[in-house]
Structure formats: C-alpha cells, structure tokens
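Researcher: Let's continue the batch. This sequence belongs to Protein translocase subunit SecD, and it's 466 residues. Same format as the previous ones, please.
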Amino acid sequence: PAVVPPAAAQAAPAATVSPSAPAATVSPSAPAATPSTPAATVSPSAPAATPSTPAATPTSSGTTPTNASDPAWVTPEVQAQYEALNCSDPNLDLKVTDDPKKPLVTCSTDRAAKYILGPAELEGQDIADATSGLQPNQAGGTGTEYGVNLTLTGDGGKKFADLSKRLLNLPPPRNQFASVLDGEVIVAPRITVPILDGRSSITGSFNATSSEALAQQLKFGALPMSFRVETQDTVSPTLGADQLSKGLLAGAIGFVLVMLYALVQYRALGLVTVASLIMAAALTYLCITLLGWSQNFRLSMAGVTGLILSIGMTADSFIVYFERVRDEIREGRSIPAAVEAGWQRAKGTVVISDAVNLIAAVVLYLLASSNVRGFAYTLGLTTIIDVIIVFFFTHPMLALLSRTRFFGQGHKLSGFDPGALGAKPARYIGRGRFRDPDAELEALDAERAAARQREGSYTKEGGAVL
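Model: Same format as before. Here are the structure tokens for Protein translocase subunit SecD:
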C-alpha cells in the first residue's frame, strides 16, 4: 500500500487494473511511475517485502496508523527524507536492506520517480509464479499487448485480495502498490478492480524484452535464498607473492633433483634429459606468457603445482625411451641401430601414457572447482608439450649423438656402454656365421617394406600383381 504525504501527492501514472478471463488482471501504467513535477509519485509497498501488520507507531501528532496505506506513517522525519532524496544523483546507492515493518523512501530503478512506501504486506515468497507474454484481448483471442502474469500462493492471494479492495477506494496515487527489489521500485501499478483469486496480470508500455525482465525479477527475486559463509580466506598481496615464490622455488628444487638423478643414472646421456627439460620449460613459459597476453590466463598456486608435477612426467618419458634403447643394446645391436629400434618400441608407450594424463586433465578441468581447474589446465598443457619435446627434440638429438664417436662407440661415461649394460656377445650360428642383430633388424625392416609394397601392388581385379 502507498502512503503519500498530502503536500507531495500527485497524479498516478496512466495505468489500470482490469479483470481478464479466466482471472482478474492488474494493469499498471509502466514498469515505473514517471512524475510530471519534481514532487514524485508515492506508491505502496511491494510484493517483494515481508508481509506484516506493523505495531502501531504514533506520528508526531499522536495519530496511530490503522493500516499500511494510512498517511499517518508520514512523520516529519519521513517527509524530510523524501524531500532530501535526489533520485537524479549519479552516486546515489539505494541497494540497502530495508525494514519491511517501517515506511521506505526510495526511487524507481530508472530514477524517474521517488516514493514514500508504507510497510510491506506481501513478501516475495507469496509469489508462486511470474510469466510474460501477449495478453488476451476483449474477444478472447491473443492480443498485441505484452504483460506479466502473476500467480500468488493461497495465503498471498488472500492478502492481495484485502490489499486490492482497500486500494481500490483510495485516490491516485495512493491506489498504487509497488514491487521493491534491493531497495528500489521495479514496478508500481495501480488497482482499479479488486483481485480476489490470486491471479493477475500487469500490463502497460511493455515489450517482449521488458516484460520478460520484469517477470524474472518478480519470480527469481522472490526466491527465499540466503547465503552463509562456510569458509573465508584473506590473502594479502605480500602473502600471495610469498606463496608463489615458494612454489616456484619448490619447482626449481625438483628440477635440480631430476637433473642430478639423470646424470647419476645415465651419465652423459643425462645431459639429453637436462637439455630436453630446459626446452620443455622454455616452451611452457612461452605458452603461459602467450595465454596470459591473449586469454588473460593467470598462474595460481594450483597451476604451479601442475607445473612441478610435469617435471617428473616429462622425465618419465625420457626414461622410457632410454631404457628401450638400452634393452636393444643388451640384445647386441649397435648403438645407432639400438636408438632407432628403441624409439620404435618406446614412442607408442610415451603416447599412450601422455594420452591417459591428458584425458585425466580434461575430466578434472570439466568437473572440478575453479581452484583445481588451474592444476588441470597446466597439467594438460605440459602433457602436450611433453609429446612435442620427445618427438621433435629428444629423439632427433639422441639419433644425432648416436653417430658420434663418444656415444656411438659406447664410451663408459656415455650411458651406452655395452659392457656395463651386459650386452650379449656375438653368437656362432653355424657355417662360419655369427648372429648379427643389426643385420637381423635391417632384414626385418626390408621384409616389412616389401610387404607394404606387395599390398599396394594388388588391384581389385582378381588380385593380379602388376
């Protein structure tokens, strides 16, 4: 219900309330009242406030309000607030929590009008549903006027029936009621007929977009939601920088430990691991920098954790490759041949391992919370970089080194020493011949190439060989 100070009362907006089949309709002028003079329209409290019959509060003249529409709510203090309120002030902030049991001085959302509102009689939970669409015309068909259809709950319908009957007999603008959301009036229609069944429609100068927006405000703004703080962490810029620096330090320590292990285990071959890790780190830094520049990507502690984990994952790919090469050397093959044979056996394992890691990263990114997503993102990124480094740097580099005297002849510090690896000696196979693993490998490769050539030489006409 509206409370209007007599000195500020003015004509209500051009809006009507009329019944429509099968339910009564409430027709407002527009989503917000627009005053014709500086003294603004005053409208009633909204369905978006808690219903109450406030305790009697005497005015300065000693008059006790009898209902929410009683002008006795307009005390000198309320009148002073009304006169001091400047809705055109660009810095005005009305999004405050008001007391629904007291009168409210506020503005419309478009700042075109200001109001003195009486205490609330309906609250948001009294609205069962709100939809928008074209309204029926007098002939019973679909008209061309957009509106918002309201359905109230049983208790809300009874309250609104009493409210509409009381407002019907009041002069403009006191025959209006306002819907208030976050301390601002979103719509202030007036009533010309009583609404007795809890079903009404708000019509006026709406289009499809504005009617849908109002319906969403009335419906979802009415949800009885509240927020409760479960956990709260405050991280200062200094603490955040300290955590990030410690995370990077942990990554550097892990990087050094992996390099030391590679040098001890594989000797000079460990330098290939070190060079590959440095290339992977450089490529990762480049990707993160480009993503930060183009996609506003920011590295968090979870992301740093993913980068640290990737050091071990990348080194694991190199270890798989090196161990396959060593197995071939143990079989008696020469080092260049062992490098190629070991690569053929290791690359499938590397691809499968990285594919599993990438799938895990994608699933984690899609299903996890925002903090864990940073970990999944960097994990997936470094997995792809691992495949690129192994295929386009580690294997070509090792193939070149295997043709040098130091690595190709199996120096004791190369990591490819046949004696240290327990390579099988040449075995006599009869008729003055010894087993030659390299020749066997070349023969196997030649046989495979011949088989592929034979398969490509057949035609569809009876399988004839061309």
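Researcher: Any comment?
Model: The first helix runs from residue 76 to 84.
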